[in-house]
Amino acid sequence: MTRIIAGTVGGRRLTTPPGDGTRPTSDRVRESLFSRLEHLEALRGATVLDLYAGSGALGLEAASRGATSVTLVESDRKAAKVIQRNISDLDLSQCRVRAETVERALAGAPAEGTVDLLLADPPYDVPPEALDGVLELAIPWLAADALLVVERSSHSPEPTWPADVELIGPRRYGDTVMWFAEYIPEGEIA
């Protein structure tokens, strides 16, 4: 069972896509991730982009904890429909889902301005070079000082960060590692 951990809809269950095409972040890992994001003051009022949304658990958790706008990108149409149903069931009107590949979603200019927080939880079989390309495509979408969080298998290498993205550090949770980084455009003071 996947549920929202805390916030306005804390404790509510999420419907997850059928089959094993998605790998929802465990409640324990999500709780640790969002505790850190709250400590970094990265949620309240944030604009969030959730790439490879899967069940939508990360983006919907961000919305429950105070993000004002959340865009969830998921290429699997069945999973995208489940996310949309969760958005409706939880009455999280600040969320919207885009049923397309992350590459296609990022190819256009951001329709609603830049994002403060980027969450990327690609399937573990996405090759590192593909993820690196997605991170490059995401740069125009990022506000100055945006936080990036990439979830990967602990057996995967560290992502190759684009120019102007500085690693804050990883956090390991069993077989999962969360990479935290910050976008600091050239000329900005950290």
UniProtKB/TrEMBL annotation:
Transmembrane segment boundaries: none
The UniProt record lists the keyword Transferase: yes
Stored PANTHER family: METHYLTRANSFERASE (PTHR43542)
InterPro entries in the cross-refs: RNA_MeTrfase_RsmD, SAM-dependent_MTases_sf
Span list, region Disordered: 1-27
Organism: Luteipulveratus mongoliensis
Name of the protein: Methyltransferase
Entry keyword set: Methyltransferase, Transferase
GO function terms (MF aspect): methyltransferase activity
Superkingdom: Bacteria
GO biological process: rRNA methylation
Keyword Transferase belongs to the record: yes
